[in-house]
Every structure is written in C-alpha cells, then in structure tokens.
Design brief:
Elements lengths: L1 H18 L4 E6 L2 E7 L5 H12 L6 E7 L3 E4 L2 E2 L3 E2 L20 E4 L12 E4 L20 E7 L1 H8 L3 E4 L2 E5 L4 E8 L1
Antiparallel strand pairs: 1-2, 1-12, 2-9, 3-4, 3-12, 4-8, 5-6, 7-8, 7-9, 10-11
Length: 187
C-alpha cells in the first residue's frame, strides 16, 4: 500500500511539473521573429537575468554585433554603431548544468572570466561541443546554455549568412545592422 502511495505521489509530481510551461521570449528582428524557450529548471539564475533584461526593455534596439556562419550569432549588448550599453553586475556561470551547446541553443556570452556574463547572449548555429563545461577551471568552464530556439530557426540561419567585416577593432560585424527591435516575454 505504501509503495502504491509513493508511486502515485511521484506520478502526481511529474504531472504537475510537466504542466508548468517554460518561459518564452520573442525577439522581433528586422529579419524576422525568433522565439526562445528558456530552461529555468537547469539555469535558474541565468534565466532570471535574461528575463530581467527583457522585462526592462534592455534588448530593444540592440543588434547582433558578431556573426560567424557555422558557429554562432551574438547580440544583446550593443546598439547600432557598436555603442555598448551599460549592464548589471555579472552573474554566476551555470554551464555545469549538463545542457550542451548544440545547434539553435542559446547561451550566455562572456569574457575570459567564467563568471563575467551580463546581458550578451549567442545562438549556436552549429553543435559547438568545445563550448561545453568540462571542469571548474577558467579554460574549461564553458558557456551556459539557458534556452533553445523553438520558432524562427530560418531567421537564425538568415542572420548567420549576412555579410560581415571589420569595424575598428571588432571583427565579424554585420555590414548592415541586424536589429532586435523588441524582446517580449510571452504569456
């Protein structure tokens, strides 16, 4: 009897947790719409950070400022003209969450410091296994995947194909701005 109650209770917990929808954010770009489903269960601090920036309208008017076909498209920190936006404090890197940098996943961009991510993110346009967490060291920490594209993969692919060049010290900058017109949290 006790075994049946535990099994029933476990089934109920699974049913309840699977009924809770993952948050989604819609990026309206000048090349089309991208919808990202966020993984709050495996990257809670990162998802909270991304949602706070989206809720505040931070991403509205930013650009995909670094595009490397076959690798990734990066955005969320610069306005047209490569004007960098002021961000909040960096967050703890949750790359050790077991989620891999696979095609159409969304991860946080950062500097060489593993715990330096703020607002910038990138969408993988390839399986980038070398970006996955391997160890808690600066060289092996990896990049935290916190979501995946669930609509608009053709827009991601179109962005990956834009012509790029050098602007000052920056490389791989789209020759024509790819603008995130708005980032809206979906109900």
């Amino acid at each position: 009897m006790l075994r049946h109650l535990i099994a029933l209770a476990c089934g109920f917990v699974v049913a309840v947790s699977s009924a809770i929808a993952a948050p989604k954010v819609e990026l309206q770009t000048n090349l089309g719409r991208i919808v990202i489903e966020l993984d709050a269960a495996r990257a809670p601090a990162t998802v909270d950070n991304f949602l706070a920036y989206a809720r505040d309208g931070f991403y509205d008017g930013t650009i995909f400022h670094r595009v490397i076909d076959g690798f990734m498209i990066q955005g969320g920190g610069f306005e047209p003209g490569l004007k960098q936006k002021k961000t909040r404090a960096p967050i703890k890197n949750e790359a050790n969450n077991g989620v891999r940098n696979e095609r159409y996943t969304v991860a946080m961009a950062r500097t060489g410091d593993p715990h330096s991510a703020t607002a910038q993110f990138f969408i993988n346009v390839n399986d980038n296994t070398f970006l996955n967490y391997r160890a808690p060291t600066p060289d092996a920490w990896g990049y935290c995947v916190f979501g995946k594209v669930v609509a608009g993969s053709e827009v991601v692919d179109a962005i990956a194909k834009v012509k790029t060049g050098r602007v000052g010290f920056a490389e791989d900058v789209p020759k024509e701005d790819v603008v995130i017109r708005s980032a809206k949290i979906l109900p």
